[in-house]
Each structure stands twice: as structure tokens, then as C-alpha cells.
Amino acid sequence: MAEQAQLKHFIQAGKIDVSLNYLNLNELVDDHVLRTKEQEARQWANEVGFNGASALTADINGFSWSYGDALYDAGITRLYTCIHTHHGMYPLFKKQTAFKWQTPEGHQLLVWSGDHYMIGNEFQLVPDNRYSYILHDRYSGDETTDQMTISEYRIPKYLQALEDQDYPFDFVPISLSGVRTDNSPANPRIMENINRWNGKHGDQIELKLSTLDEFFDVVEKEKDLPVYSGDWPDWWADGVSSTPGPTKLYKSAQRKYQLSLALDPKGTKGDPASFKHATQNLMMYAEHTWGYSASVSNPWNSMVNALDLRKAGYAIDAFSAISENLDQVLANLGEVSPKPYRTKTFKVLNPSPTTQTARATAFLMSWESVDGQPLSVDTMNHLRLVDVATHQELPTQVTRTSRGFEVSSVITLPANGSRHLQVIYASEANDGGGSTGLITGAEGVSDLIADESQNFDSPFEIKTDNFEIHIDPTRGISQLIDRQSHRSLLSGHEALFNGIYEKTPIKHENPGETRKQLGRNRKGIGVERDFGKLTNIELVSEGALYVDLQLDYSLVGTKLYRVTLRIYKHISRIECTVAVQKTTEWAPENLYVSLPLGLGEHSTLYLSKGGCLVRPRIDQLPGSNVDYLMTQEGVAWQDDQSRLMVGIEDAPLVTFGSLDAHLIKVMDFDQKLPNQTPLHSWVMNNFWETNFKADLSGFYEFRYVLQIGQSANPATITTDLRAINNGFISFRENSH
Fold first, then answer.
1. Is the pLDDT reported for residue 37 higher than 80?
2. In angstroms, rounded to a whole number, what is the distance separating the alpha carbons of residues 259 and 449?
3. Minimal CA–CA distance to 578: which of 473, 468, 499, 645?
4. What is the pLDDT of residue 15?
5. Which residue numbers delimit the Glycoside hydrolase family 38 N-terminal domain (predicted)?
6. Which of 114, 223, 230, 298 could form a disulfide with 294 if both were Cys (CB 3.0 to 4.6 A apart)?
7. What is the pLDDT, as a whole number, of residue 456?
8. How far is residue 421's CA from residue 418's CA, in Å, rounded to a whole number?
9. Average pLDDT in the chain
10. Domain residues for 316?
11. CA separation, residue 344 to residues 362, 364, 368, 734 (Å)
12. Which of 430, 455, 483 is the last residue of a domain?
């Protein structure tokens, strides 16, 4: 408590400043969690009597565009960044510059894009603490020359370099740490070297310690600062795919968090303590550092593995806490536990603020019975869903799962609407609703087209009301045609949902050195790339509502790469699950899922990101990364006729353009880069040489939802993507 009192005293005296943002984040965190924590930071500042308006970030390479609005709404109007250009870069093609960042809501933040957060340490301003990292000169590695001598060489040279670039200001901010490490303690001895410098050179170059707000008070006096609007993509966002399992769990927790908000907007039906605990852990997992610095050089190290588990623990704790909260919300909405002999009545909820048509599912465990009939593979097709209010029997399809049976129907619910359904046992089995356009031979194979105008299901071609799908026997899904508009939804030569594996061979004894040399590429010039080769196609099930198609591939780097498609017969929806068994590899590697989709050159590609919508390569700051972005919900293409959406549930990274190693292009001032490019879901990588996990081995599942509909206001894209990702919620209830 004494230290807290001292801290409060010096804050109120203006001797210690407060950066009002919370953590150095990547872009995983959603808008609600971010705003909640930013408001808590502001509240704490108010309680200690601090009324500043500035934020400082270090290390990280960017922010979601909506981050600016979250800061602004928390009273933060000034942002200082210390970007670390290792595998990344600052925007606007230069550092040590000021600009105004216009947010999606039209606010403006004053931004100073500075240098590395320990550049002052390289000027030898910290006594007995030598450091050379960004600066490479005659004193790099020098441990004997007097620190003042090095300062006298480096500081004027640094300022001259700025003047050579027409630097317009008569001040330069220099960040430094108390010691030569991240997260360092304060060091009052810094004043020794500052006073020593000023005593010799203060009449020409004066050094002065400044708080963040004092510095911005000076910057705000500058006139005619340029204004830039757009997303500021984080080059370091890619680290999330080094832990695909915990990241998938995090995304699941995030959806449950959003569902909790949708079903309980006032927070009166759940458990406030669990919800708060989930909020904190969702924020902590989104902190940008992923593990110990030796994660690649010594992946067996105890600290490496301990911090890997600790990082995963944030996702686990978030999932557990928000599951407890959502369970309580659903209980207060009428959910009951399974019970022998209970009537199988279910409540189906649409958590979306818009009308949705989707699958409603009643899940029955394998030990249960319906109307006195035990459940089994032999009896499952006798099950039907009935509307409790109207007693109408609905088109039903039953699927066997690992622990029971899914009894499903496709229904339409209004915004936030609900419906009560009951599972009954019918005397006659469902005939399965198979193909009508194919002829079956005596051996039981349906592979002869009888009527091309009819819908049919086969391992080579599938026709539904909305889609025509062609399967190439070596590559997989080679054509996807929208039957309503009669146009292809695929472009290029890659097969939809095919896997692409890359490995860059290690060329040095130290596996980290190969990674270091990649720069801003995420693979090397000698990268070895393999595309999945189709080895088997199987119609797993077909019925009145959908057909399940399984495609197995041979793919280097994996022992299993399996694509399972659920293709709906009467709605324009395809669900995809990609199952992977990944092998261990120490060399830098990537795994992608191909998404060669689009609506043609006259459409626009949109990406749901944080709390806003972004048009990649259009709504971006000049000088920013255009090779990959992180998404919250997925992507959508839209023209004046249609909207094609892909909900991305588990793996939030999306790449744009060629996968080849290349000379890096970034967003230019003229915004001439194409918005339409080849698209891939980037599900795994281990290319970083530090902090991120080296071992990607294990079993994983990645899910996607594809849906096409009519064109609409682009502002609804994020809501609609979230709706198709979340689907309907169904739970048991007491019979009415």
C-alpha cells in the first residue's frame, strides 16, 4: 500500500505519467472487451487524480482501425508508438513523424510514430548499460569505450540523418528503458548521463526527460499535420497461428462472450464474476507476446514450455469462465438438464439482430430414448422435429455424432426470435431424401445422370437449389457455381479448401538465423511448397436437408488432411470442416487453406476486423502491410447483385496475393493496389525465431461457413458474418 500511495503522489505531482491504454496487444481482442478494459483504465486514472489523454505502445507494429475509436471514447486523443521493425515496419515510410489518424467514426487521434523503444539506450544514456541493436557502427559490441564518447558520436549522427530527410521539427523524442531489457524497472541514474551531456553540449543539443503528456503538449502546437484514414495492420498479428489450438479455443470463448452479450444485454441473467474473469483473460491472451525468447532456439527448455502453457491458460480460463456465464444465462432462459423419460422439447433462439434462416438442432445423447424407443443407428431415421405451437412436422435429417444424434431442421427466425420444437418418434423411417437426378445400378452406385435439371449428389458433382459443385478427382473442388446467377464463384487454379504446406529449409546451424533472414517475408526463397492431392471422396450422408461430403488428401507435413463439407440442399449455405494431423518440424513452416473465391472484378472485398469493416488494400494507412490481415468474423465480396460471405471461425489470419517469397510491397499513398487478390486462410506458422511456438504438431479442426445472398448495405456485413458463425442456439426445456 505504501508503494501505491507513493505512485499516486508522484502521478498527482506530474512526475510520473500514465499511459492510458491497457497492454501492448495484437488484434485478436474484440471491440467490447477492448472498450471495457480501456474504460477501466480511465476509471483507475480518474481515481488517482490523473486527467491525461495520452497512450504509449512499444514493440507492436499496428492496430485495428477501430482501436482508435476505442481510445477516443475512453478520452485518449494522443497515441505514441515505438514500433519494433523486426519482421515488421512503421507506416508512412518513415519514423519520428507526426500525423492525425482518422478513425472509422470520423474522430482524429494525434499520433507520433517514433523509433524503437530502447533507442535511447543505444545512445548510451543509461550508465553501465551498453546496448547496440538498431544502430550498427564502429561502436557496435564495444564494451570499453567511454559511454560519453559513444553518445557524442551517435546522437549528432542520428540528428543529421533526420535533417537529411527534411525533418521538420526542432525536437526529437527518444525512448529508453531503465536497463537493457523489455519491461525494465525505472532507473534514476539515467539523469547522471543526461546531466553530463547537457553540461558539455546542452547549448547545441539539450536532453530533457519528459512525460508523455508534456511531449504531446509540444506536438499539438504544430500546424498542418497530415491526416490519414484507414486500418493500421499489425505485422506481428501472424504469431497467433503458432498456437492454433489455444487460438481456436480463444475464438470459441469469444463467440460465447458475444452470445452472452446478445442474450443478456443488461447482464442480469449470467454470473457477473465469471463474465468479468472471462473479460480479463480474453484481454490477456490477446497481449502480443506469445512465449519465452528461447522458444525456437531451445524448444525443450522448461521455461519455454511453462510459458507456452501459461499463455494457453488465458484462453482456457476465458473459455471456462464464459461457459459458466453462458450456462447460467441459458438456465435463466429455460434450459434444463438431460433427464430420463423427459419429453424431448427444445427451445431454439436466434441471437442475431437480423432475421436468419439456418439449421436448428436438437442433440440427443446415445443413452436416451424418444417416445419409449431407444436410440440407435437403426432407429435414428424415425426421429422427426415438430413445431410445438402448430404441431407441424418439419423436414428433418438425423446425423450420428461421437456421443449421440443431431436431429435437425432448417427454419427461419426473426431477429432475436425463438421457436419451440419437439423430437418425436415416427412409425415410418425417413427415406433419406437422396438424389432424384441420378440412376443407380445393381451394385448400388449412383453415377449416371438421368436428368440434369434435377438436384443430385455424387462424389463427382453435386447440385442443390443454389450451388453446382464439381469435384476434380486429383485436386478436389474445382468449380463452385451459383445456380441463381449462373456464375462461377471460384477463380484461379487452386481447389477450394485444399491444403497448402510450406517449409523453408534451415540453412544455418541455428534454426533461428534462417528465420531472422526472412525479414518481412514469412518464407524463404528456397521454400518447399506442396498442394494437397486428393486420395478419396466419400458421400458420408445425404438426406432431406443436406449432403455431407468427405474429401481426403495427401499433404506433406501432415498425416491427415480431411475436408468435410455440409452442403445444404435448399438454402445457399455450405459448412466446411478441415481436420488436420500435423507432424513436427523445426524448420520454418506454414499451412494454408485455399479460399479462391470471389464475385469478379467489379465486386469489392470486405474484411471484418475488430469493431469495424475494412476494404483490404483500400482502407489502410500508407506504408502498411498488405500481405495478410487478422479478421474477427471473416470476409465478404459484394457487387450490385450479390454478397458472398465466408465466416472464419477458428483461424483468424487471412493472406492476400501470391504465396511466393517476394520483394515486399506495402500500401502506397495513391492506393493503387488491387483489392481483389488470391485469398488463403493462414491456419499455422512457426517462422518467428523468438517468443512464438516452434512445434505445430497435433490434431486440429478449422471451420468455415460459406453463404451467398443478395447485395445489401455493406455496414451489415460484420453482423451477418457473426450470424452465420454463431448460427442458432438450441437447448432442452420443460415441455409446454
1. yes
2. 45
3. 499
4. 87
5. 4-228
6. 298
7. 60
8. 10
9. 94
10. 237-332
11. 8, 8, 10, 8
12. 430
- State the average pLDDT over residues 596-623: 96
| Nearest of 361, 364, 320 to residue 338 by alpha carbon | 364
Q: For residue 106, how far is the Cα from the chain centroid?
A: 25
Q: Mind listing the pLDDT tens digit for each residue in 52-106? A: 999 999 999 999 999 999 999 999 999 999 999 999 999 999 999 999 999 999 9
Helix H or strand E segment including 86: none
Helices assigned H by DSSP within 165-211: 190-201
**Tens digit of each residue's pLDDT (9 = 90 or more) over 339-365:** 888 899 999 999 999 999 999 999 999
Structure-block grid coordinates of residue 324:
459458466
Statement to judge: residues 225 and 242 lie in one domain: no
Task: Provide the residue type at 667 as one letter.
Answer: M
Instruction: Looking at the structure, tell me whether residues 161 and 292 fall in a common domain.
Output: no
In a domain, 442, yes or no: no
Q: Is residue 718 part of a domain?
A: no
The verdict on 125 and 219 lying in the same domain is yes
Q: Give the bridge partners for 19, in sequence order.
A: none
Whole-prediction pTM: 0.95
Based on the domain organization, do 222 and 357 belong to the same domain?
A: no
Helix (H) or strand (E) segment spanning residue 406: strand 404-413
Single-letter amino acid, residue 736: H
- What domain count does the chain have? 3
Ranking 259-263, 332-336, 490-494 by mean pLDDT, the lowest is 490-494
- Cell numbers for 329, please give them: 444465462
Q: Which of 197, 229, 261 is the last residue before a domain boundary?
A: 229
Is residue 251 a contact partner of residue 198, using CB atoms and an 8 Å limit? no
pLDDT at site 450: 56
316 close to 714: Cβ distance less than 8 angstroms: no
Give the burial class of 247: count Cβ atoms within 10 A of its Cβ; 0-12 exposed, 13-18 middle, 19 or more buried.
buried
Digit-coded pLDDT (tens) for 433-484: 555 555 566 555 666 665 566 666 777 889 999 999 999 999 999 999 999 9
CATH number at residue 211: 3.20.110.10
pLDDT at 14: 86
Which DSSP category does 232 fall into? B
Neighbours of 349 (CB within 10 A): 21
Q: How far is CA 88 from the centre of its chain?
A: 18
**Does the pLDDT of residue 677 top 70, yes or no?**
yes
Same domain flag for 294 and 368:
no
- Rounded (5°) CA angle 632-636-642: 155
Provide the residue type at 349 as one letter: L
Q: What is the mean pLDDT of residues 143-161?
A: 97
Please choose, from the candidates 239, 237, 236, 250, the residue with its C-alpha nearest in 3D space to the C-alpha of residue 296. 239
**Over residues 548-563, mean pLDDT:** 98
DSSP code, position 356:
E
In angstroms, the CA 6 to CA 231 distance is 39
Q: Averaged over 496-500, what is the pLDDT? A: 99
pLDDT number for residue 670: 85
Residue 513 in grid coordinates: 538465423
**Which one, of 167, 240, 156, lies nearest residue 204 by Cα?**
156
Same domain, 86 and 199: yes
SS3 call for 694: coil
Residues whose CB is less than 8 angstroms from the CB of residue 396 and which lie 6 or more positions away in sequence, other chains included: 383, 384, 385, 407, 408, 409, 430, 544, 545
| Closest alpha carbon to 15 in 173, 222, 186, 177 | 186
Q: Return the percentage of the chain with pLDDT > 90, whole number.
A: 85
Question: What is the per-residue pLDDT for 441?
Answer: 63
Domain assignment present for residue 651? The answer is no
Phi, psi dihedral angles at 438 (to 5 degrees):
-120, 155
| 28, 607 contact by CB (below 8 A) | no
Provide the residue type at 113 as one letter.
Answer: S
Looking at residue 186, the DSSP 8-state letter turns out to be P
| Whether 377 and 423 share a structural domain | yes
Q: Are strands 78-83 and 54-59 parallel, antiparallel or unpaired?
A: parallel
Neighbours of 691 (CB within 10 A): 20
Q: Are strands 558-568 and 546-554 parallel, antiparallel or unpaired?
A: antiparallel
